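Q: What would this chain look like folded?
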Amino acid sequence: MKKVLFFAIVLSVLTLAACNDEEAGGEDKITTDDVISAFNDAGLEAESPSEMTNEDYGIAPMKADEGVRFLIPALGEDSGGRVFTYSDESDLDEMKEHYDSMGEESAMLFSWTIKHKNVLVQINGDLEEDTYNEYKSALESIE
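A: My prediction, written as structure tokens:
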């Protein structure tokens, strides 16, 4: 009887610990605001962030928890990038593959993509590679 009681207590403790780990994991999620702030803090252009509409997604899958467009004025009017957050990594990977495959099919459709934790950033392909690397570093600096 004591073994059964001991086993039940150990199982309860492990279950509670697992639940607490899941709740703590939610705090590790990066938000679109975190990303825009990291870009701005790094001295990078990420102006006029706005929530994405259905039209902004175009033919891309609409599976993000949140999507925000931002402008990079140096690239010209209405050019910039997008920040997506996901709770499901397979949805994030699907969206990254969507943008990457478009660029492989046509140089005209090329865009930069950066995956970090639960975030995908997609930036206009006209951005210079050195500047893209600065955006990548800023994103990856977010813990």
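Confidence is low (pLDDT under 50) at residues 1-26.
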